[in-house]
Amino acid sequence: MTSAQIKPTVIEAVTEFSDNFKDFGSSMPCAIGIDEAGRGPVLGPMVYTCAVTLVNNENMLTKIGVDDSKVLTEAKREEIFERMKGILLFQIFGYACRSVSAQMISAAMLGRTKYSLNKLSHDCAIELLKLAVDNNINVVDVYVDTVGPKDPYQAMLHKKFPDMQIIVSEKADAKFPIVSAASVIAKVKRDRALRNWTFPEGIVNVPPGGYGSGYPGDPNTKNFLLNAVDQVFGYPNLVRFSWKTAEVLLQRKAVMCKWYSFAFLGKKYSMKSRFFADRYLSNISKCSDF
């Protein structure tokens, strides 16, 4: 299976899906599992994935070794993902992913109207279920790894999709094979994005050890964050500058800038700098060049 791109909807994200996602199951009852990868790291995207299979067909996924991605090695996750994409599984398994960039996450969390990571995650799950419906998949069962309290999350999903049987559960990736499959795909997609990252900013100071896994506790990630700070422009787009780890280092290593509102000064001015546009910083677009 290859993948295709579609235009994102509610939040700005890249959506990718398997070739067999559209009309998957030919109207037969299907089960969907939803999970994410990359919620905690300070680097890179968060990837949300829905995996789909025919109802009562989850045993096929178990046979190829799907499990909670956190208990599998990177090599094993890659092997399972390639097997899931193989021709033998083409008629029994499909997927769709939404990848939310680091700068989008930061802009959402730092905007005037706060948009929490939980809300962002919930919206990604909703968009994936809508995508399944729009692609004529007969979704009857849905299993979701919870983000935040499970009961209100499940009630919200039931309200939006009343014809589906929905279970929101802690550790769903370890309980339900279809969620395990989603977990593996999300992790593989995020790892590949991080591993193959190219910096649109051009030359970025990456230490010999690389930038690691992206988790704040990773020594290589820490070293990268220490060395990648630009004193004026801060971090490249790979970094979630809304994370406390990045915020503390910016306060320590970057120069202080003061931005004066032209609205306060009684003047009209709109900054069109690509720097702000690329980082979705429209909430501070009216400012002076001090």
TrEMBL record:
Q: Can you cite a GO biological process for this protein?
A: mismatch repair
Q: Which domain of life is it from?
A: Eukaryota
* Reactions listed under catalytic activity: Endonucleolytic cleavage to 5'-phosphomonoester
Q: Which PANTHER family match?
A: RIBONUCLEASE H2 SUBUNIT A
Q: What is this protein called?
A: Ribonuclease
What's noted on cofactor binding? Manganese or magnesium. Binds 1 divalent metal ion per monomer in the absence of substrate. May bind a second metal ion after substrate binding.
Listed A to Z, the keywords are: Endonuclease, Hydrolase, Metal-binding, Nuclease
Residues annotated as coiled-coil are none
Among InterPro entries, the record links this protein to: RNase_H2_suA (IPR004649), RNase_HII/HIII (IPR001352), RNase_HII/HIII_dom (IPR024567), RNase_HII_hlx-loop-hlx_cap_dom (IPR023160), RNaseH-like_sf (IPR012337), RNaseH_sf (IPR036397)
Q: Where is the RNase H type-2 domain?
A: 29-255
Q: What does this protein do?
A: Endonuclease that specifically degrades the RNA of RNA-DNA hybrids. Catalytic subunit of RNase HII, an endonuclease that specifically degrades the RNA of RNA:DNA hybrids. Participates in DNA replication, possibly by mediating the removal of lagging-strand Okazaki fragment RNA primers during DNA replication. Mediates the excision of single ribonucleotides from DNA:RNA duplexes.
Q: Which GO terms describe its cellular component?
A: ribonuclease H2 complex
